Amino acid sequence: xxxxxYVWEIPVRLTHWVNVLSIVVLSFTGYYIGNPWILVxxxxxxxxxxxxxxxxxxFVFAFIFVASxxxxxxxxFVGNAWASWRNLFPFLTAEGRKSLGDALKYYLFLRRExxxxxxxxxxxxxxxxxxVFLYFLQTFTGFALLGEVNTEGIWYxxxxxxxxxxxxxxxxxxxxxxxxxxxxxxxxxxxxAMLIDNEEGNGLMSSIFSGFKFVHASLLKKVNNKG
Amino acid sequence: xxxxxxxxxxxxxxxxxxxxxxxxxxxxxxxxxxxxxxYVERIADALATVKRPPLVWLEFQDCAGCSExxxxxxxxxxxxxxxxxxSVNYHETIMAxxxxxxxxxxxxxxxxxxxxxxxxxxxxxxDNGIYCTIGGRTALDIAKQVCGKAAATLTVGACAFxxxxxxxxxxxxGAVGVKDAVPGxxxxxxxxxxxxxxxxxxxxxxxxxxxxxxxxxxxxxxxFAYGTRIHDNCERRAHYxxxxxxxxxxxxxxxxxxCLYKMGCKGPATFHNCPTVRYNDGTSWPVGxxxxxxxxxxVAFWDTMSPFYRRLPNVAGFGVEAQADQIGLGIVGGVxxxxxxxxxxSAIRARQQPLxxxxxxxxxxEGKEG
Lengths: 227, 370
Ligand code: SF4
What we know:
The complex is a heterodimer. Helices cover 67% and strands 4% of the residues of chain A.
């Protein structure tokens, strides 16, 4: 029997969708800034300052994205067990390590049953650790490049030291590459969610809207005992 | 008005430089140093009365282009004024003495101390620095001795700054700049390929007027000259903000003077005052002449600012032409293809081999209740 269980709390869902929106907007505006492929007529109201508007949008969404990351980080410490930062490092516990191996085998077609979990499976958690690291790098390189424009500003004070070690062009290159890695991740992420939803019938896809997942009664009992 | 030293007045008058020219020069220097106009008088006073500091100009692995740029400085007769204020005791390219006499004037200057040294060119360090020797001594040896005892060292050009062209990958001679060759000395960097002579002169004027070197950024470049980005003072900036770019050399946009961003202009990545002071007596500068900035005043510009006609550097290890965006697109495509294949296999598996836990729930692979 499947039971309905409240897994993803509001901050988790909220930051997820704010991240989606910001990454989409940041990718499009960022790509335009790197390679302005649209030629707009100066007669349009946005024409005389088109690149300016695109850059402004990019910076605004960068701040929104950072706000979302900060909220999510906070929630990783005060939220429920499935929102916890511990999910990022499954290899720290014996149970996590086993789950990691099971998930890997499942994806490689070496095992039929996907590991039965309430939140993320261990492999997904580990992937998110990489993604969080990429988020950090992307934000850092972005703010360093923004800060360089005004060497008297706060962002330059915080990030300017990096230019002693790396040239700004190399930082730009890293910033571009990480965007593509995040897009590649999005492809993987949506695919994996669809796959697990299909296989397990646990309502994974709708859970990121509603917060509720469907889990087996036996698993629910285990969870309740722990709590 | 300030007292005008008869000494300097006479020297300059003999060369046809009037007091008016001299004050114009002082105003230009104050403007270059971003000082308020009241400093013009102070600069004039200082230059008229200062004791001529000895200067030696060392050339190592260089093309002498920085010397050329400096000698062509024509803003109110810099050649006349600064070269008369300074006593240039040693400069391989332009000095009169040769051979032993030349070496002796360098030795004498070093012995006396209190001199300024300008370094042009990179210093090879590989194989004990044998790739550049002068009078039987390596560049490294000379730099250590001469810069080590100097009151202050100015590096001119990209080569003396971080190694420049000789330092570009694969850097066969192990070329470095003065900062790495002789650490811990009083040093000011004036990078550029070549640097603007106006900035060299202004730095010397600052030193003579205030007795100290101008404030610098974290790479040791004076802020008056390297404090703002080219992109932020560029005359084509309005076209950048409007999204109006040259797409191809010689197209209509190029003729209309649009922004050179898509032609690989490195103005957004480069700190220099080229747009405001310009070169050759304020005649023009690269972007003004229709060619993008190549970022010559930044560290490792030959490696990180090239390809000069592209926005981003190439990615090492991916072939000559591969750029970050092409590689990124490839990664996304690869991931999508891999998961498409994975999806097909998973779908077949789900059909042939339903999950055990669904069986126990009485759900078939087709999802019908059993
Ligand atoms: S030409 Fe270069 S420096 Fe000038 S606005 Fe365009 S990108 Fe910036």
